[in-house]
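Researcher: Here's the sequence for the chain we discussed earlier.
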Amino acid sequence: MYGAPALAVPVPQLPVTASATRRPGDDGADEVTFELAGPGSTSRIPSSSSGLQRLVAEFRKWAGAVDGLRADVLIDCSIPQGRGLGSSAACARAAVLALADLLGRRLDARTTFDLVQASEKVTHGRASGIDALATGATSPLLFRSGTARELPMPMPGDAPAPPRERAAERAAPDGYRGPGGVFVIADSGMSGGTREAVELLRRRFAREPRTREAFVGQVSDLTDEAVRDLAHGRWDDFGTRMTENHRLLREIGISTARIDALVEAALAAGGLGAKLSGGGLGGCMIALADEPGRTAAVVSGLREAGAVRTWIVPAGRYAHHAD
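Model: Thanks. This is the structure I predict for it:
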């Protein structure tokens, strides 16, 4: 926000898949229905949903479906909604890929992003694009000024290179420990309030322009330092940046008492760092660990502190994403 860069981590443990089947009829009108299946339930999404209307309109334009677009789309989403985990973007991405598959068409990465982002802008009012990009990423993303790049990371569990192949590691700054970071995401059980958080910041920064300048500068510095820590496997330093970032977000007013309690619980259990995740005012938090024993302790501490569910995400590059 406000020009500050951000880091986003894909969560392959929370997949979203979709299938599309043709509806009968040839009257030239669009008739696309969406059903959302999640843990234990299936619900029909109102066809009047403005985000889905935009999605269908933009997809039809791209596909050149002059005879109308008629389909039933079933979206199986394992991402809890309203938690700042990108569920709307992931569902939109799965839906457009399913529709393209139905028509025997293939979407390139740029077109997929444009279609998902068109839906996101309607759903959220103003969308940065980070969710639309992260849902198709295979590595952590650095997002800056409307563009993103995947950070070079090893595959989780990659074995260390043989000694003769480790010149780059020997040349790395002190503190390098190679791959081994693990993110623990915890659901607070409360929906996030992205729109409210954005409006809160807008009003405060309008009143206090110097506060905005200081906040954006500090967040930008922390993110740039964290990218370097991530590249060199300096997990202790990376965790410190996370916790400091949370302090700034708490002081600016977009954390909650429950999120703060989860952050403190993760740190007390041995986490290397912890912070709120997503837009703020609820949703999820994310902690960092660097070994199995510490990860288990952090998960246990978060559950004891009231987290309704947790996910463990090894830091690294993943082989697959939605395609």
